[in-house]
Design brief:
Number of helices: 29
Distance between the termini: 78 Å
Largest sheet: 6 strands, parallel
Length: about 750
């Protein structure tokens, strides 16, 4: 027995309540018949959860057990709510309310406000950015467009987690959240924002939930009114409920338990917005008598895709992993997932485009193919490769690369610098095309070191970094190319990709692909540092990255391709490694990868940091001699085998947090010392050791001596100078002793 994946446009309405149950599998049927008391449906990807809960509601209504006007079904997007209403109508269950949390709360707030507060409901500000900007200005804080967007998102997170302005810094510290700027400043902006709203009698989207909760808490008569109206509740995607939404749901319910929740902890990928799977995972504890039904029959994907999906979660750690679902495919066998390693990112994009073109030639519609990546800045190289291959495409959840504001601004700046030529002082000291581009884009937000965390600032940096990489690749392909040549190349690329949007291959981030499915999915860029993303630092963050990959894999019905590149650009060092999440799953890999058993949660060894390897007394003596076992990258956790990487304590291609100015000062000092002692510069310190010092910025001898390439002998000889430079001091040029012994 199978559940239909696709229904006809106008299906026949079942002629009886029992007919509503036709076609349901045994577990789905059990959900449909569980019409009283608390019910928890744990539904894996592709198992027909929406089918199960809509048939449950429809059966209850058609059998006369549920009155349609007393049922409230809530979900998280207007699209999902609309789909639910459509399915209920097709099943003959009209009159049921299917809404998002916000639309249900807003309807109640509008109805009860005159009675609870008096007068008209304050105006709803749909876009709060302008108000946040004014709040920041009143606090004397200037925010650019991207910082403004991040600050707005941070205020939204604080409100859905019920965090007041004064408590925001403590909440950030407790959750180890990467705040887009200083938490004290954000707290100040947040407080001023709330004050401005009060002064102008306006409310925002989050206030709709907060005010509804407040009225239901304070006015028991209104709460009872709502509870008489709605007596049966269904919550879809329950793993994405925020603390504020759960509070509202509790108030709707009162002391009753006619609640059906549906979710999958293995698809929790929105914790950065305040979502938490805890309510789903703790449902049985809160409702000891609950009926729990597991949907594991996967009607979407082939056994080969399902096997990989199960394998991904089998290696997971943490509480969510304890409740993972083992899917069982109900489809015929299909092709094995294809794992492809490419020499560089452009080769990966070109290879992906060729395979897509072959699939289309074999009869797979372009609209049934998707390319899924971790961050939106990855889209450009795939846009270009598909355009070059003559394959139509469309972007989901992001602007086209050359339409992004920061890319347009960068183009204007580069064009202006190209016209000015040697008359632009910004280009003074830039001796090649990439350095010219870096100099220009540094005025637009590009830095040699990526910003911490995710969000709009990181997205902007990634877009600008993509232009820097393009300049590096362009110069390598065309030695001697000028800034004008690069601008012309950018214009040609932009013009080629500004064609009207057509129904074609979908390019989407993994987050925006949630809830969708295709016949063929290409999950790309699966190298350490991108999957998991480099700024996933805690075990919980790494595990969410694993779940994000799981979501990507389970989007594929039949064809699944997973790929990565061992270097960023053509001719680059092949130092990248495929994601740890595929260890033991892809052919030729070991189940006990370099991260296995190295810690809780995601099993990742984060390295030792600047004060690593000290002896028991804190002196640092014999620290390296006492270090046992493999040396691991302090960014991605990969075992390091090359001497240069071991000195840096990171992979060559992993993000560097090196202080560039400090590195320059150390090199200048080294040149002088090498001259004094009549030795080659590397005899003082190698470049790799200087880079390691500039990354660690040691504060004392115990932190300096443990850096590979230093040691006790060079510490005694050069340590004082190095520490002085690291401290920002200016050295006496006559301080060298002239001794040639190194």
């Amino acid at each position: 027995m199978t559940a239909a994946t696709h229904s006809t446009l106008f299906p026949r309405v079942p002629d009886s309540a029992d007919a509503v149950l036709d076609g349901l599998d045994p577990e789905q049927r059990e959900v449909a018949l569980a019409l009283s008391g608390p019910v928890c449906v744990l539904a894996g990807a592709g198992t027909g959860k929406t089918r199960a809960i809509t048939h449950r509601i429809a059966y209850g209504v058609r059998a006369g057990i549920l009155q349609p006007t007393t049922v409230l079904a809530v979900t998280f997007t207007n699209r999902a709510a609309g789909e639910m209403r459509g399915r209920l109508r097709q099943l003959g269950a009209t009159g049921v309310q299917a809404r998002t949390f916000h639309s249900a709360a807003l309807r109640q707030l509008q109805y009860f406000w005159p009675k609870a507060v008096g007068g008209e409901l304050p105006r709803l500000v749909e876009r709060k950015v302008q108000l946040v900007s004014e709040a920041a200005a009143r606090c004397g804080i200037r925010l650019d467009r991207n910082e403004l967007r991040d600050t707005t998102s941070e205020i939204e997170w604080a409100k859905v987690t019920q965090t007041v302005p004064a408590d925001y810094p403590a909440a950030v510290a407790k959750t180890q959240r990467d705040a887009p700027r200083d938490p004290a400043e954000l707290s100040q902006i947040y407080a001023m924002y709330e004050q401005l709203k009060r002064d102008r009698s306006v409310i925002d989207f989050e206030d709709v939930l907060l005010l509804t909760v407040g009225i239901l808490q304070d006015r028991h008569d209104i709460a009872e009114h709502v509870r008489r109206q709605y007596q049966h509740f269904v919550v879809d995607e329950y793993q994405d409920v925020s603390p504020l939404q759960q509070r509202l749901l509790d108030l709707w319910l009162g002391d009753r338990d006619d609640l059906c929740v549906v979710g999958d902890a293995g698809q929790t990928i929105y914790s950065f917005t305040g979502a938490t799977p805890d309510h789903l995972l703790n449902f049985r504890a809160r409702h000891p008598n609950a009926t729990v039904v597991k949907l594991v029959r996967d009607y979407r994907s082939t056994p080969q895709v399902v096997q990989l999906a199960n394998g991904l979660l089998s290696q997971a750690r943490g509480k969510a992993a304890e409740h993972r679902l083992e899917l069982v495919s109900q489809r015929d066998k299909g092709p094995e997932p294809v794992y492809t390693e490419y020499t560089d990112e452009p080769a990966e994009a070109e290879g992906t485009a060729r395979r897509i073109r072959d699939l289309i030639a074999a009869g797979v519609p372009a609209g049934e193919i998707a390319v899924l990546y971790r961050v939106n800045s990855q889209s450009e190289v795939y846009e270009q490769a598909l355009a070059d291959a003559g394959v139509p495409y469309q972007l989901r959840g992001a602007e086209r690369f050359f339409d992004r504001p920061e890319v347009r601004e960068a183009g204007v700046a580069l064009r202006g610098a190209a016209r000015a030529g040697g008359n632009d002082s910004l280009l003074d000291g830039a001796d090649d095309l990439p350095s010219e581009v870096r100099a220009v884009l540094s005025t637009k937000g590009w830095t040699s070191k990526p910003p911490a965390g995710s969000g709009a600032v990181r997205d902007r940096w990634e877009s600008l970094a993509a232009l820097v990489r393009l300049a590096e690749d362009f110069e390598q392909a065309r030695p001697g190319a000028t800034l004008s040549d690069l601008v012309a190349e950018l214009d040609e690329r932009a013009a080629a990709q500004h064609a009207p949007t057509v129904q074609g291959v979908t390019l989407a981030s993994l987050h925006s692909a949630k809830g969708l499915e295709w016949d063929a999915a290409f999950v790309v860029g699966l190298a350490e540092g991108m999957m998991p993303i480099a700024y996933a630092k805690t075990d919980e963050q790494v595990e969410e990255e694993r779940r994000l990959l799981y979501v990507g894999v389970t989007r594929a019905r039949f064809h699944l391709s997973l790929s990565w590149a061992v270097s960023r650009s053509p001719g680059g060092r092949a130092g990248r490694r495929p994601t740890r999440f595929l260890n033991g799953l892809r052919p030729g890999s070991s189940a006990a990868g370099p991260w296995a058993g190295t810690g809780g949660g995601g099993g990742i060894d984060r390295g030792t940091g600047t004060g690593a390897g000290r002896s028991a007394d804190g002196s640092g003596r014999d620290a390296r001699a006492r270090r046992r076992g493999p040396v691991r990258c302090r960014v991605c956790g990969r075992t390091l085998t090359e001497a240069g990487e071991m000195k840096l304590m990171r992979c060559e291609d992993c993000p560097s947090d090196m202080d560039e100015a400090l590195f320059g000062r150390l090199r200048a000092w080294r040149a002088e010392r090498a001259k004094e002692i009549s030795q080659p510069a590397f005899c003082v310190f190698t470049d790799k050791t200087l880079m390691a010092i500039a990354e660690a910025v040691p504060a004392d001898e115990t932190e300096l001596v443990v850096i590979p390439g230093v040691g006790n002998r060079k510490l005694a000889r050069f340590g004082a100078d190095v520490l002085a430079i690291c401290a920002g001091q200016t050295l006496d040029p006559t301080s060298g002793d002239g001794d040639g012994d190194v």
